[in-house]
TrEMBL record, chain A:
<dbReference type="Pfam" id="PF00474">
    <property type="entry name" value="SSF"/>
</dbReference>
<keyword id="KW-0812">Transmembrane</keyword>
<feature type="transmembrane region" description="Helical">
    <location>
        <begin position="187"/>
        <end position="204"/>
    </location>
</feature>
<feature type="transmembrane region" description="Helical">
    <location>
        <begin position="352"/>
        <end position="379"/>
    </location>
</feature>
<feature type="transmembrane region" description="Helical">
    <location>
        <begin position="243"/>
        <end position="262"/>
    </location>
</feature>
<dbReference type="GO" id="GO:0005412">
    <property type="term" value="F:D-glucose:sodium symporter activity"/>
</dbReference>
<keyword id="KW-0472">Membrane</keyword>
<feature type="transmembrane region" description="Helical">
    <location>
        <begin position="428"/>
        <end position="450"/>
    </location>
</feature>
<feature type="transmembrane region" description="Helical">
    <location>
        <begin position="83"/>
        <end position="104"/>
    </location>
</feature>
From TrEMBL, chain B:
<keyword id="KW-1133">Transmembrane helix</keyword>
<feature type="transmembrane region" description="Helical">
    <location>
        <begin position="20"/>
        <end position="40"/>
    </location>
</feature>
<protein>
    <submittedName>
        <fullName>Uncharacterized protein</fullName>
    </submittedName>
</protein>
<keyword id="KW-0472">Membrane</keyword>
<keyword id="KW-0812">Transmembrane</keyword>
<feature type="transmembrane region" description="Helical">
    <location>
        <begin position="52"/>
        <end position="71"/>
    </location>
</feature>
Length: 565, 85
């Protein structure tokens, strides 16, 4: 790939340096509050809802999200909004309204721990191991992307960028634990908005406002006006029939893929678990839904602007439409993934450029920090304490958590180096770990509402569901059947979901269920309503209650879908 | 801001709202200065005539002010367990 060297001046470096002083300072300050493992790994369950809500959004607003979504925006336009409005918001609301009471109310310390309490060690080991391995791997991928960006923007050698970035993440997490990770995620959120909002406004100004953008995109001579409405999104889903496309997006992306990701991924759920009450925990993803539905306007829209404003990218798009992407990249030296960087170079003056670079670096590091902080919790509590060294004093597990963080960062550096050499391998592995999500959601939701479901059904359903997803994926990769675009991923996830449910039901009727007394807090019908409310706290006013707030969010997201449909 | 007979203390400087306010405030002041001193024709061409640094700087300073005021109006009270023993 070519350099996209941004013309950074001393003023930009100054702003970036100030930001990193804050990042490290937060780690150092957060250290004062840490004297036990629960404070290190779960922030002592003390944070207010707005903090955990922004961290919830930021933990997912990493490298892949910002660069990837602006790239998809440059390529397809408004249909990219589905990844936010269909593929995230409904699942986040569902997590807050339906599932969070079980996670928080049962006082488990991680998602795999809920699995263990509900289904025993079989399902737990599958879940904890696959999660821990996936997190290290994804941390490595995030680190690699960060290193590449620093390399391309500032000209540092890749290895140096990797080591410096890992060292920064390592120092603030080992010092300040989850609190430092979460506080930095909140800070990162504002820096990203401070960078991307001006970028979008200036970009719009250059193309002649919103009307100018609409006019230029409709007359781009390629996909044209199709890029201006989010539905039916045939280009995105890969289905040429509009009805099938809508069904594919709603069920494939909106239901199976996104519910699996948002409701069972401990990276996300951990942020809510760090909050101070069950009400705050439920509000975490629900309040997070509001920024989540607005973020695409400063991520997807800049991508669309870049595609019509930056000549290089317009040429790339034209050649890739008429010939193919590889030829286009060879001739222009850019790809869709460069959309945001190209727009930054085109329109941002020095000063703002520094903030934008700081925001991007922040996003990449936060992605990795989120993976590492979720990893060390699962490693300490679910693997080490459960299977290796039991029944030690808490100080011991605090130490394990710190060592796990150091180990994870070192492994992530090596994963990043491997990712650099075998990028396809990494893509496949990431896809593979994605397959764990759909069956996880099936097992969780069945286990939470069906008290008869047995421990054996728990792990059999998980393993069977995951394997069936892998099978579908292999069949489509080897060309046994051919589904374009996201079709294969949607089908794999849906198959996994159905297979998991069917297997769980069959196995449940062949095995003995757990006694009802052990299911309190874990299964809906066995849990008294009072367990799902905060003891000793007055009923909150209506604007702080999860269900009404979620209702408002739902109405807003429907309005957005209609307005930009 | 807590009175001595309450078993609470405020988070003070480490209230995350003050940290956000401080960072955005510093960013805002620097950008506004750059915007006032160094607005060149080249930049005007990039942005389509807006002094982007100045306006972003002003926006950041105002946002920072909101966070400081919020933290001042509603300080976090932490129950101090040591004081109760």
């Amino acid at each position: 790939m070519d350099d996209i060297r941004l013309d950074a001046q001393w003023i930009d470096y100054l702003l970036i340096a100030i930001y990193f002083v804050f990042v490290l300072g937060i780690g150092w300050f957060a250290k004062r509050g840490i004297s036990s493992s629960i404070e290190f790994l779960l922030s002592g369950r003390s944070l207010p809802a707005w903090v955990t809500a922004l961290a919830f959004v930021s933990a997912n607003l990493g490298a892949v999200e910002i660069m990837g979504m602006s790239a998809t925006g440059a390529q397809y336009g408004m249909p990219t909004m589905h990844y936010f409005w269909i593929g995230a918001v409904p699942a986040m609301l569902f997590l807050g309204v339906v599932m969070m009471p079980f996670y928080y109310g049962s006082k488990v310390r991680s998602v795999p721990e809920f699995m263990r309490r509900r289904f025993g060690t079989g399902a737990h080991l599958v879940n904890a191991l696959s999660f821990a391995i996936a997190q290290i791997l994804i941390a490595g991928v995030n680190l690699f992307l960060l290193g590449t960006i620093v390399n391309r923007l500032l000209g540092w050698p890749l290895w140096l960028a990797l080591v410096v970035a890992a060292a920064i993440v390592l120092s603030y997490i080992t010092l300040g634990g989850l609190t430092a990770a979460i506080y930095n995620e909140v800070l990162q959120f504002f820096v990203i908005v401070a960078a991307l909002l001006p970028l979008t406004i200036i970009g719009l100004n250059r193309v002649g406002g919103w009307d100018g953008l609409v006019e230029r995109v409709s007359n781009d001579g390629m996909l044209g006006a199709e890029q201006l409405s989010s539905w039916p999104g045939e280009q995105l889903s890969g289905f040429s029939n509009p009805v099938l496309s809508v069904i594919g997006i709603v069920f494939g992306l909106g239901f199976v893929l996104s519910f699996g990701y948002w409701t069972t991924n401990f990276v996300e759920v951990q942020r809510a678990m760090a909050s101070k009450s069950i009400n705050a925990a439920r509000l975490t993803p629900i309040l997070g839904a509001f920024p989540k539905m607005l973020i695409p306007f400063i991520v997807v829209v800049p991508g669309m602007i870049a595609a019509v404003l930056v000549t290089q990218l317009t040429q790339f798009k034209q050649i890739s439409m008429t010939v193919d992407e590889a030829t286009a990249q060879a001739q222009t030296g850019v790809t869709y993934n460069d959309a945001l960087l190209l727009l930054m170079r085109e329109v941002l003056p020095n000063g703002l450029l520094g903030i934008a670079i700081a925001g991007l670096l922040a996003a990449f590091m936060a992605g990795m920090a989120a993976n590492i902080s979720a990893f060390n919790t699962v490693f300490s509590y679910d693997l080490w304490q459960q299977y290796v060294v039991k029944d030690r004093e808490d100080d011991y597990y605090l130490k394990v958590g710190r060592y796990a963080t150091v180990g994870a960062c070192v492994v992530a550096i090596f994963t990043a180096l491997i990712a650099g050499n075998f990028s396809n391998l990494m893509d496949y592995l990431q896809t593979l770990f994605g397959f764990f999500n759909a069956p996880l959601f099936a097992t969780f939701i069945l286990g939470m509402f069906w008290k008869r479901m047995t421990a054996t059904a728990g792990w059999v359903g998980l393993v069977g569901g995951t394997l069936s997803a892998v099978a579908v994926f292999i069949l489509s990769e080897t060309g046994v059947f051919d589904l374009p675009g996201q079709g294969a991923a949607f089908l794999a996830a849906s198959t996994a979901f159905v297979v998991d449910i069917v297997l769980s039901v069959i196995v449940t009727y062949q095995t003995t269920p757990k006694p009802a007394a052990e299911l309190r807090g874990l299964v809906y019908s066995e849990t008294p309503k009072a367990d799902f409310a905060d003891a000793n706290e007055p009923t909150p006013p209506i604007w702080k209650r999860p269900v009404p707030v979620a209702g408002v969010a739902l109405v807003l997201v429907i309005i957005l879908n209609v307005t930009f449909g | 801001m807590s009175t001595p007979n309450e078993l609470t203390k405020t988070a003070g400087a480490f209230d995350i709202r003050n940290v956000i306010g401080a960072l955005l405030g510093i960013f805002g002041i620097i950008l506004a200065l750059v915007g006032i001193i160094g607005f060149t024709p080249d930049e005007a061409a990039r942005t389509g005539g807006i002094d982007a640094n100045l306006w972003t700087g002003i926006g950041l300073i105002l946002t920072a002010a909101v966070f400081f005021i919020w933290a001042r109006m509603r300080p976090i009270r932490i129950v101090d367990e040591d004081a109760g023993e």
